[in-house]
Amino acid sequence: MNFEIITENLPDEIYPGLIIEYRVNPFKFLKTKWVTEIKQVIPKKLFVDEQIYGPYKFWHHLHLFEEIDPQKVKMTDKVYYRLPFSMFGELIHSCIIKRRLEEIFDYRYKTIEKFLTQSEKNYNFPLLVFVFWLVKQKKDYIEIEFWTLQLSPAFDDYFHKVIDDYEKEHPKIKIKWVDVPYDAAIQKLLSAIIAGNPPDAINLSSDFLSKFENLNALVDLKSLYPQDTFKIFLPNALENCTINGKIVALPWYLNTYILIYNKKLLRDAGFTEKNIPKTFSELIEFIKNYKNQTGKFAFFWNIGKDSYLPIMLESEGVKMIDDSMKRALFNSEEAIRLIDDWVQLYRNGFLPREAILATGTKIIEPFQSGDVAMVFTGPVFIKRIKENSPMIYENTDVTSVITGKTGKHELAAMSLSVLASSKHKREAADFILSHKFWKPTQVQQAYDYFSICESCIRRFFL
Fold this sequence. Notes:
The protein is of the alpha+beta class. The protein has 17 helices and 17 strands.
């Protein structure tokens, strides 16, 4: 396809977020630009690139590197792609594109083989040296890879101390801490599981535990420890981490929601901070008034895909299921009325189209682009606003959580799990069960910001 890299000054090492532009010839008579982004990098193991713009409707390329022995590395490419133009695209694929892709990878295989053969012959380089990938030296310790969800840099000092103290007490254990963006964590974890290189232990929201348990991806910690081990945890908290009788996680901390708002947009629309809604009923009226006065959207919230409406229902006192957890209760007349209030907001043009179609991970995008004045989500997204939209960030402030008539609101429970694919399950479990994580004073000091106190949120995130 006559690849030509047109991005200048590429770095020596790739990293997540790196954008690379190419010029390609999918057909002899057609030249087009192809833009890809490096989405994930696990050094010496894998990297993933995805198309941002180009000839494919969808392109996901997983590069895998596996050490076979001290002189051999197995390189595997897994490509998932889709062509545009529906049936016509399928015809092009069978006639041209499939053959072109095979030619590309055949050429790459021969080029790598030639490069490595020449390197070994002329410079006595070991065969496994290729681009950024180096031989893993034989280790005299066990490495545990531990992922957290968007806790760096706010808690770097805390984690470095926990890890340093643990490694001093366990000199044969090394902890590799990796902090990943909250909204990309599930995609990265699934990619790592598919690639056969997931972390040993991970920080997960309790909402995702059942999904990964259904994939048999999590260790039942009862298989490693006696039941008495888990008495240090509150029964209700531990219950959230128990699925089908298996303890697949340890409860760790609670994360609150907040209302994030743009002070300038409110002022420009003639509102003050006194007008900021505190209840869901006030929020509905505010959304209408703001749109009527400005012609713009006040608020973004998912009410279709990845809906937040169950949070609203429980805050309004509507139980989702009965005490036996066998019968749904969210089809009551009151629940239908409350949901219909939000449906009518959408139908009457007070909510953007994305409120129905967008996934939960997109919740912050309309706010950081300045398209809405308010968003209701977790404080972890404030860092994203600061990095991606500094001008919006300068006008960003927060207030306490919106509630229904109960005055209560859901807290997102975070947990720690061990992956079933880990080669060091017991060592990983020993680490997450360590007293280094569970000293009450240490945990409280580290996670004060997760209370609903606005000053705590401002201290750590604004």
